[in-house]
Structure formats: structure tokens, C-alpha cells
Design a protein that fits this description.
elongated; alpha+beta
Length: about 240
């Protein structure tokens, strides 16, 4: 029994070490993803994918202590779950929030058909990578792209030209005010309400909802024919 506990159990000192290691790695790895995660996830290069894989392996091995055991793994999982629940509840508290511009993480790659080369270089992207996403969105020319955004999760969103872009669609985008000016100059910005599209104006004949029959060629309308048959004559009689 002692031999079995040696393989799946853990000592009290080892349990404390696992908890401390998990908490440390949680904050360190969170900071790494905050700084470089968007660049790593957006790049399809094999080297970047290998770096992400190695980082995950390092995190998993660092939290398990000197000798990985089943109990140590359960303690690490419980610590991670507790941290997530704690910070999720803290986000719900009425704490002073940061400025919207400082929280913005999405970056604009193309606005009104113009490529932002500085943003491409800062995130390690190239024109072939950009065109790969544009082709997947059905864009064959830059003039067809009104807005291309690198999302915080590394995905590239493409808004095609001809679609009215409301300013609320730029929430969380870096330099949103400057992007709005470019979209307004190009005629892609929608200044109306974003809740519902405008309803079509009623037609002139929309007030009369009763169906009307259309007479065949050579025939008179039914109401006119009925009036001629039932209409009184000048001498008070009825027409035959």
C-alpha cells in the first residue's frame, strides 16, 4: 500500500509546492499570453506553433513538482479552477475600470482598402498571410475590404465593402477614433441606430388592404358594371 501511495500520492510539503508553483505559473503564463499571445496565435508558421506547444509543456511540467503524481495533478487542476473562479468573480465587482482605449486589443490591418503596414510588422504578419485570410473571406481586391481586424484571439475578421459599419462595431479596436474618420471619408461608416434596420416606407396604395380584381381585356370592372345595371334612369325606371 505504501508503494502504491508513493506513485499516486504526495506529501504535505509537495502539495504546498504544487499550489505555489501553479499560482506562479498562472500569472507568468498569463502575462506571456497578454504580451505575445495575439502574435503567436495569428502566425501560421511552424516555429510559432512549436513555441506554443513547448510553452504548454513547460507550464504543465512546472506545476507538477519534482515527481509528477496523480494527487499532484488533481491539486494543480483544483488550484487553476479556484484561480479562474476567483478572478471571474472579481470582474463582476463594481471596481474602477480602465479606459476603453487601454483595454483595446484588436488591431486594424486594413481600413478602407489601405493596408496598415506598421501594424503588420508589429504583429509579425506578412502580406501573404494577410491575403490568405482575404481569399478565405472571398476578397479578390483590397478595394473590396472595408475593414480587416486582427482579433485578440489571433483570428482575422474581414468586413467587406458595401456593408455599413456602425461605430459600435469598433469597440475594443485600437485607434477606434482614427479608424472611424477613415471609414467616414470612404463612406463605409453607418451613423444611424444600430438596433434595427430602417423599415421600408409604405406605398401609396398601402392604406387600402382589400384585394381588387383585375378585369380581363374587353370587360368592365365589376363595381362599374354593377352600378350600370342597378343604377336608376332619369324616368325612375331600371335599365334593362
Amino acid at each position: 500500500m505504501r508503494d502504491l501511495w508513493h506513485y499516486i500520492g504526495i506529501t504535505p510539503a509537495g502539495a504546498i509546492a504544487v499550489v505555489l508553483s501553479t499560482i506562479t505559473i498562472y500569472f507568468v503564463f498569463g502575462a506571456v499570453l497578454r504580451l505575445w499571445g495575439q502574435r503567436l496565435y495569428s502566425s501560421p508558421r511552424s516555429l510559432d506553433l512549436a513555441i506554443v506547444t513547448v510553452l504548454g509543456a513547460i507550464v504543465g511540467r512546472s506545476t507538477m513538482g519534482h515527481v509528477p503524481t496523480l494527487t499532484g495533478g488533481l491539486i494543480a487542476l483544483g488550484t487553476l479552477a479556484g484561480l479562474e473562479v476567483t478572478f471571474r468573480n472579481l470582474r463582476r465587482l463594481p471596481l474602477p475600470q480602465l479606459d476603453a482605449q487601454s483595454r483595446a486589443r484588436a488591431a486594424v490591418l486594413v481600413v478602407a482598402g489601405k493596408v496598415q503596414n506598421d501594424t503588420l510588422r508589429s504583429y509579425g504578419l506578412t502580406m501573404p498571410m494577410l491575403w490568405s485570410s482575404l481569399r478565405q473571406a472571398g476578397v479578390s481586391h483590397l478595394s473590396q475590404a472595408a475593414l480587416v481586424v486582427l482579433e485578440p484571439n489571433g483570428q482575422i475578421s474581414v468586413v467587406r465593402a458595401g456593408q455599413a459599419i456602425h461605430p459600435r462595431a469598433l469597440l475594443g479596436v485600437k485607434g477606434a477614433h482614427r479608424v472611424q474618420e477613415h471609414l467616414r471619408e470612404a463612406g463605409h461608416l453607418h451613423a444611424g441606430p444600430a438596433d434595427q434596420p430602417r423599415a421600408a416606407p409604405p406605398s401609396e396604395n398601402a392604406t387600402d388592404s382589400s384585394p381588387r380584381s383585375v378585369p380581363a381585356p374587353g370587360q368592365q370592372p365589376a363595381d362599374q358594371a354593377q352600378g350600370e345595371q342597378a343604377g336608376p334612369t332619369q324616368d325612375g325606371g331600371r335599365r334593362q
